[in-house]
Amino acid sequence: MEHVLDAVLEIFAWVGIGGAIALAILAFALWIADGTWVPVHAVIDDSPNGRVARWFDEGGVGEAVLTPHLAHELGAKDAADLYARRGSRDRVRLYRTAPGVRFAAWIALALGALGIIALVTSWVMLFVRA
Q1: How far is 114 from 16, CA to CA, in rounded Å?
Q2: 121 within 8 A of 8, measured Cβ to Cβ
Q3: Distance between CA atoms of 128 and 120, rounded to whole angstroms?
């Protein structure tokens, strides 16, 4: 029975640490591809196209039609702190990082924790038996 537990811990250690490294690389690549998002204070207004966010940043004035999800999240607010994509005048969102980047980073952290816990447990069991 000891050998089975050792094998399971070894598998969890390798899969956890290896998966964490792979997903961390993926999260980094997604983060780089996502571009730079800067904080802006936007005024929310109604227009014929729907609710619109307008803001000033270092390059001038930006205006973006809010997606249904973003309009729902903001509700009836007249102003909001959002993030605008640098170099683009028509894109805003609620968070600096994209959901895919955050998801990949959290899964990488979880797998890394699993791998480290399995590795430490394996070492402790090795020295307890000796």
Answers
A1: 5
A2: no
A3: 12
Residue 114 to residue 117: CA distance in whole angstroms: 5
pTM metric for this prediction: 0.78
Torsional class of 35: left (φ above 0), alpha (ψ -120 to 50), beta (otherwise): left
Rg of the chain on CA atoms, in Å: 23
Which DSSP category does 97 fall into?
S
Question: Which residue bears the tokens 């811990």?
Answer: 9
- Per-residue pLDDT tens over the stretch 61-104: 889 999 888 888 888 888 999 998 888 888 898 999 999 999 99
On whether the CB atoms of residues 65 and 52 are closer than 8 A, the answer is yes
DSSP code string of 53-96: EEEEETTEEEEEEPPHHHHHHHTT-SEEEEEEETT-SS-EESSS
Domain that holds residue 28: 2-129
Could you give the number of structural domains in the chain? 1
